[in-house]
Amino acid sequence: MIKITDEEGKVEYQRDAANYKGMADEVFMPESIVEIGPLVKELYSTNTPFTISAARTGLTGGGVPLSGVLISTERLNKIISIDVANKTALLEPGVRLQTFHDELKAHNLMYPSNPTETWSTIGGNVANNASGAKTFKYGPTRSFVNYLEIILPDGDELHLKRGECIANGNDAEVHTINGNVIKFRIPNIRIPKSSKNAAGYFLRPDMDLIDLFIGSEGTLGIVKKVGLDLLYQVEEVLSAIVFFDDYNNLLNFAEYLRNDNPRQLRPRLIEYFDHNSLRLLSEHHRDLPTDAMGAVWVEFETNSIMLEHDTLALYELTLEHTDLVDMTWVAMNDRERDKITKFRHDLPLAVNELLTKYGQQKIYTDTAVHAASFRSYYNEMYSQLNSMGLDYVVFGHLGDCHLHANLFVKSEEDKVKADKFYHDMMKLAIELDGTISAEHGIGKIKRPYMKYMFKVDEIKGMLEVKKTFDPKNLLGLDTLFFNGEF
Ligand SMILES: Cc1cc2nc3c(=O)[nH]c(=O)nc-3n(C[C@H](O)[C@H](O)[C@H](O)COP(=O)(O)OP(=O)(O)OC[C@H]3O[C@@H](n4cnc5c(N)ncnc54)[C@H](O)[C@@H]3O)c2cc1C
Description:
This protein is α+β, with helices and mostly antiparallel strands. It has helices at residues 7-10, 36-45, 97-106, 122-128, 135-138, 210-213, 247-258, 275-281, 307-321, 334-357, 374-388, 412-431, 450-453, 456-469; strands at residues 2-4, 26-29, 50-53, 69-72, 79-83, 88-91, 109-110, 145-151, 157-161, 171-175, 181-185, 222-229, 231-232, 236-244, 269-274, 294-302, 329-331, 363-364, 391-397, 402-408.
């Protein structure tokens, strides 16, 4: 077990990718998963608060402690097994997504749940129910988790296999490996109509109780092992970036693809870049069309027989929606596909780099709404953005009606405007039956907005669940709830 106590050594562990800052008395870095249990028991017996941290790519402060001890999982990074025949894998929590993707490729397998930040860990992804571009087709991390080993705040453990521990209506019961029975009531809480949601605990009658721990943001237990379902790699992928000179046409193009369509084009991802995103990216990618107002990245899973047909169908659709059809980037091989993927991945990194350079905390939306309400949301968002006079960049998961509007704040006056925009967009998303967080979670930064989305009784219900598993309120202190309250 590595232990860091000096101030300089702790600095990196006291902030996340949103530049949210906190403090830890000590940082513990177990070098084997068997070291976590005894450490947690010791912390529990001494009433010491502790927070779990992994790759620290989180954007809500969930992995940043404000006091107590930090446990980093970064050295717990073994891929325990890959069962090629059954398409499953068992992993330690600190396995980086990129390492896992690379390993799977060698077995002709894939794990499609892919947050843009592939430096993140599988434990962090489970804790946040992370999602990414391909969530449009495949759903978030939750869709692939078949098994979890969870260390509870008192050091006891749960081993949960999907399908084996189902709630009876609102009555739930789990059995620990030490033979303890934990019973609790599942509160009825609002479920948004957006296709993605990462706000609050996953709670609903008759649920599979493994799902409670997925997306619980390191507040109910520590993910010790993760079992995942996998898929075979697809034979061919048609990947393209289509540029538009008109936002309305861009939205029509995306809407066509989001729905069943006569051309039978069914993308696995539909990603959005606004004009400012393209301007920011043009610093790194010189070959961008200068007259584009926005762009959409689409990918289709196909095969050698259908590839030509699908390419032609996409060309025809593009021709109907943009005058910039000749500018379209189409990836014909792995290298070109990687270039497009990198283009998308470079964007949040470029935004975060700018914020870090100016020492600013990230102010951005993670809201999502249902497809039927998306245009209202989109129009109001741009109406406010264009009247505020702030620099901004909007990009994100257009397939899931989930865009990140990032604001650049240079003065106190800007901050007031940005905060108002942030509040207004949260309120609007809720009014439209959407969510305040579609993928990054609540953490500490968005905690005050839980009350926007949930009724007091619903939050109290979640807090009761938290107290059942963590009666001393030691784990992930101040994430989701404030000092054990709300
Ligand atoms: C450039 C960039 C792009 C991003 N794009 C996306 C995206 O497309 N989709 C998306 O969903 N997110 C995205 N994120 C956010 C982030 O990558 C995810 O939230 C990711 O899941 C965090 O993983 P991590 O390993 O970095 O965890 P950390 O940031 O270290 O921790 C995040 C949370 O998980 C908890 N946690 C971590 N490990 C464990 C464990 N073993 N047991 C219990 N709790 C644990 C922590 O306590 C904390 O609450 C992006 C971030 C960046 C910087």
